[in-house]
Structure formats: C-alpha cells, structure tokens
Amino acid sequence: MIFEPITYTGGVYRHEEMTELIEDLGGYIIQRQVIAGDVIIQAMVPREDIDLLRTVARPLMGTIAVTPLVGTEIAIVSPSLEIHHLPHTSCDVGEYLRRYGAKTNMVGLARGFGKRIANLTVEERDVINEHDCVIYLLGNFEECIQQKFPVLRRGVHIPIVITGGPSRDALQQIIDPPVEGYVGGIGRLMHRYRKPEELAKLEEIVAEVSRVLDKKRVEIAKDPPSVSPPRLMDVIKDEVEAIHEVTSPTPLTVQITGLRVKLPYEEYAPVLRDVEIERGIRIGDIADVLPSRMRNYIIVRIKPYSETKIVV
Amino acid sequence: MDALEYFQVESPEPAGAEYYRKIVGTVLQDLDLLKIISKLHVFIDPRIPIFVAVGVIRKLPSLIRVRDTGSVKIEDRKATISISDETYLASLVSVLTSRFGKDRVDQPDRFTVIITSDEPIGSDLEEVPIADPREGIYRDLVYALQYMAPEGFKVRRQDVRSDRFYYVASEDTLDDMMVRTLVRQKFSLMGVSYDL
Fold it and tell me: Which candidate in A119, A140, A144, A193 is best for mutational testing of the B interface (most B CBs within 10 A)?
C-alpha cells in the first residue's frame, strides 16, 4: 500500500466522519488541529483512496490537498535569533513549509553570523542531525557564504538545502562539496514576503525541499524501515497513556524514518522500548530509543529491514 | 527611496548591493527616518570586510520649551499652563515637578497644569527646555544603521555631528586611517566635505 500525505481542511461539523474514514481506510492521522470553527487534519492515506476522500469531503465543505511534506521534520537554520535575521525570511520560510505539512523547527545559531567568526556548536549540529532535512538561510554575499558555509555544515549528515542572495548558479559554483538543494535569490531582507515574486521564491523552496526529500524516500525505499513511522505513532498513542497528557501541538512528531516523542527520556525510554507492536515484537527490537538533544525528548530511530529482518 | 536627495549603495557584488538597497529602504521607512535623512551613501565590501554608511541629516527640530506646549499665564506666585499640544506633556510635568516640587504642581484636568510657588514665578518659565527631540533621532539613526549592517560586523565606529553622520563596521579590528579615508571618500561622493 502506497501512502500519500494529505491535508484536510474543513469545519468542525461532522469532521469525525473524515477522521473515521481515514482510519477505516488504513491511513494514519499525523496531526489534528481544531482552530475555532475550523479543523485541519494532516494524514497519510492510501493513494488509491484520495478520490474517495474528496467525494466524502465535498458535502462537508472540506477540501483535500496533497501536501508532500506531511510526515517530515525540517530544521530551518538562521544565523542568529537577532532582529537582523528574524522574523523575516526565517519565519516566512518556516510558516510556508508548514502550509505544506512539514513540521519545522527553527535553529537559531549562537554564532552563525559573520564571515570569519561564524561557528556551529556541537549541540546545534546534533539538533540539526535529528531532522529529515535542513535548510540554511544564508545572507546576501557570495564571498561570505563561500567562506562560512563549510563551517556551518561541518558534521551535518542529513540532506542540506541552501538558500542565499546570490543566484542558484552562483550558489552551485561556490558550494564545495555540493549539497542536495539550492535556492538562490532569497537573501536577508527586512520585510515580510508578500509580493508575487517573493511568494514564488517560497514556492521554489517547497519544491526544492520536496525534491530532496523524495530522493531521500527513494533511497530509503530500497531498504525500508522495519515499521512505518505513522504506524509506530499509532501504536505509541494506544499503548502509552502519558502521551495524551503532553500539551505540545505534536506530542509525537513523525519523521521519514523515525519519531520524536515529547516525553522525558529517563522515565519513558524503558516504557517505549517495551511497547509491543505485533506478535511479540517490541519497539526495542526494531528501533533505537535515544535521548534527543532537543529538551528532554526521546528520538526513536527505526532500524531498516536489512538490520532487523523484521517488517511489521 | 525617492524621498532622499541622494541614495547609493556601492558594493563589488551587484546582487548583494541590490539586497542592501532593499534593506536600507525598509529600515528607514520602518523607523520613520526618511524625512530626517537627506543624503545617504552605503558602501559594503565583504572581502575586507567592511560596512560604511555616511549621510546628511535634514534640519532637525530644535529644543522643545514650555511655551511650545501651550499658553502660559503667570500671576505673581501662580502660573497656569493651558496645554494645546500633548506630545511632550509627560516630560513637561516631570520638569516642573523637579523644579518646583511635587506638591506645587497640580494637573486638575488633562489640558491644565497649575503651579503655585512661595516665590514669585519669573517670566523665564516659558523658556525652560523640556525635551530634546534630537536625542531620539540620533538614537534611532544609530539603531537603524546597526540594524542595516551585517550582524557579524560587531566592531564599529560611529559619529553623529551637527548635520552629518557616519557609521563604519567590520568583524575585524578597524584601522583608524582606513576609517578616515573611507569616510572622507564616501562623503565626497555625495558632494559633501567632512573633517574627521
């Protein structure tokens, strides 16, 4: 069964019908947000059932959109959290990616600014590496990007998308070794992105990130994880009662090959490892339950089939 | 940026210069400085690296005195100020209380301030300065320039003198001679002389 990431947007009235239908079809609800009278559901559903969902959504005045970034967690790296870099560009990019279903985290570097003085700490590197993909939002000058980027990417092993003021071609020329994605013409600015050409740039970032993640998914499909992350999320929701007490908007954040569980590591890591998925197979058998560098969370990295010889 | 008589951004990287043109425009607009500045030249060279901004300020508003806030009526030991412009009312009341004492200054309603004193009140009360709008403008100006310059350029030299100002920033130590030469050179591009 091939799953397609979708977002349902509609009213609160009768939205349970949609929730139940998604579950009955074998899909997984990644996130459900109720904002006043509106409901936004992000889900993974079987590809062949999207038309059926659209038919059911129509009388409910809801819409179904295919949002390629649902089920991914993306780091957006800003050189600092100062007024020079925030809120514009960083927040605009973050917010736009969220519209396409991604869960974005802003990583404001402690010393990411400057040409010569830019630096990446070990903690920042580890936090970035916990994501599916990272977007570096760099500045306006080729000279600076060329000199500082090798420092900022040191130790980062997840796919990188780089953005900056110079054109895409210029970025490709100055970045060595090459990274997975480039979006030029989006440097440091002091205003919100609202003009059509600026919004087109945000679209370009979404397209580039989708392309990079699709490539990653294809690679992963050759040796798939032992359990799909949305399924593991459902299991944890059913088995670990404490997750329902977490007030975070996404207590369980789905990634391409894992999950971020927003429970304290010391207390809940043994509980998680012991959760049974199916026929005696426990989470500890098919995944590494590790401490996250983000607060005191848990990061679950699902092992590939080649390692466990188990698929559930 | 048409509001400025002269505005140029100079850089060896044209694409970067275009971004800085947009940044400067937005910052000046946000901080309402377009009507304060008449000429501005920005030079940025990431290879050195250095950021230089030089400019000329339009005629600034002068000191605000008691008479600017409304009409002042002095009757021997009593003075009544009828407020017509509330902008500097807070600083007016604070200047008066520090001069005459808190119990001597009364504000029975929003637009009236009454002073009662043991001594006869002189007519010089009208000339007492209560605020200097230039202070806020200088502060905003330096803040705006910090905000425009690249964040990593932490080493800086700045000056606001009469109607001219400059701001030089880098991430390396600033050489005095280089600062002088660059500032003079950039002022001369605007047709303005500056003695550092």
Answer: A140
Instruction: Give the pLDDT of residue A171.
Output: 96
A35 touches chain B (CB under 8 A): no
Assess B21–A contact: CB distance below 8 Å, yes or no: no
SS3 at position B76: coil
Determine the distance in angstroms separating the CA of A180 from the nearest CA of chain B, rounded to an integer: 23
Q: Please tell me if residue B140 touches chain A, with a CB cutoff of 8 Å.
A: no
The contacts of residue A300 (CB under 8 Å, 6+ apart) are A232, A258, A259, A260, A261, A272, A283, A287, A288, A289, A290
Which CATH architecture best describes the domain A73-221?
Answer: 3-Layer(aba) Sandwich (3.40)
Query: What is the DSSP secondary-structure string of A207-269?
Result: HHHHHHHHHHHHHHHHS-BSS-HHHHHHHHHHH-GGGGG--SS-SEEE-SSEEEE-S-HHHHH
Say if the Cβ atoms of B22 and A191 lie within 8 Å.
Answer: yes
> Which candidate, A85, A89, A141, places its Cα nearest to that of A113?
A85
Q: For residues B177 and B165, what is the distance between their CA atoms, to the nearest angstrom?
A: 18
- Angstroms from B26 CA to nearest CA on chain A: 6
- Closest partner CB to B151 (pick from A82, A143, A190): A82
φ, ψ of residue A255 in degrees (nearest 5) = -120, 180
Chain B residues with CB inside 8 Å of A108's CB? Answer: none
Q: What's the mean pLDDT when you consider all of chain A?
A: 94
Q: Is A59 exposed, middle or buried (0-12, 13-18, 19+ CB in 10 A)?
A: exposed
B49 in contact with A at a CB cutoff of 8 Å? yes
Nearest to B22 among A113, A167, A189 (CB): A189
Residue whose C-alpha is closest to residue A267's, from A289, A287, A250 = A289
pLDDT digits (tens, 9 = 90+) for A77-112: 999 999 999 888 899 999 999 999 999 999 999 999
Give the CATH number of domain A3-66; options: 3.30.2010.10, 3.10.129.10, 3.10.20.30, 3.30.70.260: 3.30.70.260
Complex-level ipTM: 0.85
DSSP A92: H
Cα B137 off chain centre by: 2
